[in-house]
Amino acid sequence: MPANTNSVRICSNCDGFPVAHVSIGSRQPDGTLPTLPAVCLHCSGTGHVPATTAKTPALTPAGR
Description:
This protein is mainly β. It contains no helices and 4 strands. The strands form 2 sheets. The chain has a two-stranded antiparallel ribbon with strand order 1-4. A two-stranded antiparallel ribbon has the order 2-3.
C-alpha cells in the first residue's frame, strides 16, 4: 500500500474542468467576445470532490 493516499478525487461530473466560459453571442464594439462562466454544481468549481469510503450495499432484512 502506498505511504500517502489522496484524500480528494477528480469530480466525475466535470472531469476536473470545473469552469466553462460560454459566449453570449454578440461582439463588443472593440471586437472582444463577452463570456459568462458556467461552474460545475457538483464540485462547486473546484474540480475535486472528497474521497469517499467504499460503498457498502444497504442491508435488507431477510426472512419473514
